[in-house]
Amino acid sequence: MTDFIDLKLSKPILRAITEEGYKTPSPIQAGTIPSLLEGEDVLGIAQTGTGKTAAFALPLLHKLAEAQHKAISKQPLAVILAPTRELANQIGENIQDYARYVPLRTKVVFGGTSIRPQIQALFRGIHILVATPGRLLDIMNQGHCDLSKVETFILDEADRMLDMGFIHDIRKISAAIPKKRQTVLFSATMPASVKGFADGLLRDPVTVEVAPQATTAEKVEQQLMYVDQGDKRALLDHLFKDPAMEKVIIFTRTKHRADRVTRNLIQAGVTAAAIHGNKAQNARQRALKAFANGETRALVATDVAARGIDVDGITHVINFELPNEADSYIHRIGRTARANATGIAIAFCCEEERAYLKDIEKIIRQSIPMVDDHPYHAADVANATSKPVRPVQGGRGGGGGRGGAKGGGGRNSGGKRHTNQRPKGSGQGGKPHAGGGNNASGAENAGGAGKPKKNKWRKKSAGNAGGGKPRSGGRPGGRSGGAVQGGNRNRNSGNS
Ligand code: AMP
Q1: CA 118 to centroid of ligand 1, rounded, Å
Q2: Looking at ligand 1, which atom is closest to the CA of residue 29?
Q3: Element holding 258 (H helix, E strand)
Q4: 54 lines ligand 1 (CB under 6 A)
Q5: Could you tell me the domains of the chain?
Q6: N or C terminus of the chain with fewer C-beta within 10 Å?
Q7: Neighbours of 271 (CB within 10 A)
Q8: Ligand 1 atom closest to 46 (CA)
Q9: Residue 22: CB within 6 Å of ligand 1?
Q10: SS3 assignment, position 223
């Protein structure tokens, strides 16, 4: 499949995507759009940046436009759920772009902002409702939205929605939608919890998987800087002396730390803004806009707030604190490798974060190359041979070991190169952790829904973005045959 025309999308939609500059379908689009147009349930495993939004939005628009249903008061025909306001907004904007030549109405609803205009739009009638789960339930509970006419139910970034505790809200929303419907679930990762959840929601889905987790990582130049926790801010200021750091997103684990890092950057003369869950919606939008326009050089974000950010031209991603969930590392660094761009991702790692680093290197199946020619290189951390100790969860990230906690010396402040003593298996560009499959660290299965059910899923090949390697192995008894190969697309699905 090399052209959008082959996908049989209607002319007004083709016209809109041509104007968007899309020339050929991305692998996730080529892999899912035909099944979606046929009305099948689809499970898409794809990260942001793969074109997944258009993958579910284009066939939805096509079908709704063909059906020519009028919008009915309070009764949308399609519901798209997303974990965060930013992602919901992003989806809404993309849909507006793709739907510019079809007479369909879309509304985005999310919390933290006035509910009244959202209710009014629903009252006037819309075709497509994009929502975060909590706000949609509120609106439903107040009697302003009835999902009994919904024909298509789409869940985007399902893994993140489960992580954020939306499972009960989603179940309630799902129960309010007729059983006879098309259900589409996209997720960046497929831990057992998400697989079990998808299994309960989808009927005989076609599974399409692209961009195995390592692929995004491969497009980004990754660097690892060992640094004491107390030196991180100084290292950050030091890095900002490089004018190549033009558009930089900095990740922290906590909102509090995001604010502190932002204040420090501003003090150091770097234009910066923070975005996290404690910020009002309009403050978040303002910060995002200023960052996208290039008015601010640095955006400091927590993982949740950063989901769905689609800003072009991010030159660097700095992991000021490593995430305690290895998957988040991939989401984070993917911010700088959107579409075909490449970028640099720098990970700061202090003593307390060595366990997180280990999890991350396992999931990306490579060792992150260390850079030690900076003035804050923590040689003792780099050369540590002791087993990394996992910090107690839930506290302020990075532990309390600031400054002198590790007892004097050891820091090489002259920028002298140290022997790079990497963890075992740090082969050059190889796959030292082959066979890891998508088995991160057990943590990702927390709250899992028990063993995955027997595999009744079909699997399609979606080609492979960026020539990435197919995921090796897979779970025994899990999805058929591992990798993304040889989908038996003709098997009778028996549904709609
Ligand atoms: P997404 O994965 O949906 O967040 O999309 C990532 C970016 O890729 C967005 O900026 C889209 O506008 C863009 N995009 C989606 N599909 C295509 C395509 N077929 N060709 C070029 N760009 C695309």
Answers
A1: 27
A2: 19
A3: helix 255-267
A4: yes
A5: 4-209 (3.40.50.300), 220-382 (3.40.50.300), 399-496 (no CATH)
A6: C
A7: 13
A8: 2
A9: yes
A10: strand
CB of residue 32 inside a 6 A radius of ligand 1:
no
Distance of alpha carbon 43 from alpha carbon 54, whole angstroms: 15
With a 6 Å cutoff on the Cβ, whether 53 touches ligand 1 is yes
Compute the distance from residue 152 Cα to the ligand 1 centre, in Å: 22
| 391 closest CA partner among 337, 417, 336, 354 | 354
From the CB of 44, is ligand 1 less than 6 Å away?
no
411 lines ligand 1 (CB under 6 A): no
Which residues are paired to 349 by β-bridges? 226
pTM (2 d.p.): 0.58
**Residue 28 neighbours by CB under 8 Å, 6+ apart:** 44, 46, 50, 51, 52, 55, 208, 210, 211, 462, 465
For ligand 1, is residue 478 a contact (CB within 6 Å)? Answer: no
Cβ–ligand 1 contact at 487 (below 6 Å):
no
pLDDT in tens, the chain (496 residues): 468 988 989 999 999 999 999 989 999 999 999 999 999 999 999 987 789 999 999 999 999 999 999 999 999 999 999 999 989 999 999 999 999 999 999 999 999 999 999 999 999 999 999 999 999 999 999 999 999 999 999 999 999 999 889 999 999 999 999 999 999 999 988 888 899 999 999 999 999 998 554 455 567 899 999 999 999 999 999 999 999 999 999 999 999 999 999 999 999 999 999 998 777 778 888 898 999 999 999 999 998 777 667 788 899 999 999 998 887 888 888 888 665 566 899 999 999 999 999 988 887 778 899 999 999 999 999 999 888 887 765 433 333 333 333 333 333 333 333 333 333 333 333 222 222 333 222 222 222 233 322 233 344 544 433 333 333 333 222 222 222 322 333 222 222 2
Evaluate: CB of 25 within 6 angstroms of ligand 1.
yes
Contacts of 93 (CB under 8 A, 6+ apart): none
